Amino acid sequence: MNNRFIRLFFLLVLGTFLHANAQSYQNAQHHQCLKCHSNQTYSFFNSVKGKDEKRMMNPYFILDTVALSAAVHKPFDCTDCHSSEYGTYPHQSNLKLEPLSTCLDCHGGDASFASYHFERIDEEFRKSIHFQVSGENFNCSKCHSQHTYFATARTSNNVLDIVDYSNKMCLSCHNDMKKYKMVSGHENPKLVQVHDWLPNQELHFKNVRCIECHTEVLDSLKVSHNILPKSKALRKCVECHSADSRLKASLYKYQNLQKRSEDGSITMVLANESYVIGSHQIPHLKIASILIFFLTLIGIIIHSSFRIFKKK
Amino acid sequence: MTANQKIYFYPVWLRIWHGLNAIGILTLIFSGISMQSSIESANLLSFKSVINLHNIAGILVTLSYFLYFTGNLVTPNGKFYIIKPKGFLKRPIQQAIYYAWGMFHGMKAPYPISEKRKFNPLQKYAYVLVMYMAVPVVIITGFALLFPEIIIDQVYAFSGVFVTAVFHSTMGFFISIFLMVHLYIASIGKSPLENFKSIFNGWHEVH
Asked: Which residue from A237, A271, A292 is facing B47, i.e. has the nearest CB?
């Protein structure tokens, strides 16, 4: 009895602690780190000048507290990944030079994350153009912000949301001159011009993810991380616009799985086929059209045989 | 034996429309089947060229449809397409019976062609359905697919583009079936090639 009470008490304390942590991101002004890192400015005592000073915060160090408190890593505190020495303020300047924890430090080799295949993702990523060009400098966080990441593809019911979230990852660099140049060292190509061969460019950008054409699709991974060089990107319309569309193996893999598990509605599965041109993708219409065609042909053959026979 | 009467049924504008329409529709059917089946007929034309061909033929058929529509408004040819309520079902049925049975058993054509009657009832119904329903639907949906930004995003659970594409190809299919029957029925005459000659020279011979 006593033992159960202690366990219950422990769980209550742990729950309160976790709750307090999640809350603390929401109340940025009460969070030790966020009270500066959610603001445009910060103040500190300049010991050289011997007076208080106010400075502008580096915009890349200002965190989106709304996204932070909704993200997958919200149960963790800043110093779980950043050095605990950041707890002292002003921060020591050499802390910046220390390596940060990597994603695989937590996610690698852990049975609870096995289904996400983080090691396989790492293998695939190492084949990608990002790694080939930038090497170790290109890490997971270049695309997946640890602060704001949430698993849209696995949780959203709306394909357009999945597409939007995924494409914003790519566009955050590929459509941003400063960030692109910081990583690559040269100016970013203009996406609209590069894709001028693509019909209905705007609709494609809205309805499919960049990675649909720019990665090698694998059945064994939910999202292939082998981002291909431009020369190997997909350019054939029929790869998607066909009954055996590659979208079924990539983007619609999520949508179908979810819709089927939620309501098993056939109309939803049918609605997902909208990337395929024409009525032949509806099996009943296909059968009906083949039947009508052959019945007409047979009718003509029979009628013309009678005409030949009767010399009409 | 009475001398054969010749009626000038097909004026120049109508023959120009019919010619353009025939070339356009045939191109649309072949390029449409190729696109729908997603066959990359690399030996003939690439997928992208097939799309361009389909778009160009679609615009040609639209332009020629305006010629047809205007021609039927301003010339007497339009009156041949008017369906009267009298014998709405009886007349086409009689014609169908003639095609299926009567013509092989010495029956005379129930609605012979004359200056007042260019089309038999069945022919008239088919032409009205194709030219005033199927072709306009195909043109409207075709232009919508050419500018997919204008299509409504969602029609109930379906994507607007998907519904439009299904309408487009279903109507296209019916036009293809019409064409098969149209070509076959055109071969029914004094000689199988007689009607084909008429659409070239404009004169229809009444026997």
From this structure: A237
Environment class of B7 (CB within 10 Å of its CB; exposed 0-12, middle 13-18, buried 19+):
middle
Distance from B95 to chain A by nearest Cα, in Å? Answer: 15
Question: What are the pLDDT digits (tens) for A133-153?
Answer: 999 889 898 999 989 988 887
| Percentage of residues in chain B having pLDDT higher than 90 | 56
Asked if B36 and A280 come within 8 Å (Cβ–Cβ), the reply is yes
For residue range B99-125, list pLDDT tens digits in order: 999 999 988 989 988 888 889 999 999
DSSP structure string for A32-56? TTHHHHTSSEEEEEETTTTEEEEEE
Q: Give the three-class secondary structure for B158.
A: strand
Domains of chain B, first to last: 5-206 (1.20.950.20)
pLDDT tens, position by position, B170-207: 999 999 999 999 999 999 988 888 889 999 998 988 76
Is A273's CB within 8 Å of B148's CB? no
Domain ranges of chain A: 1-101, 103-277
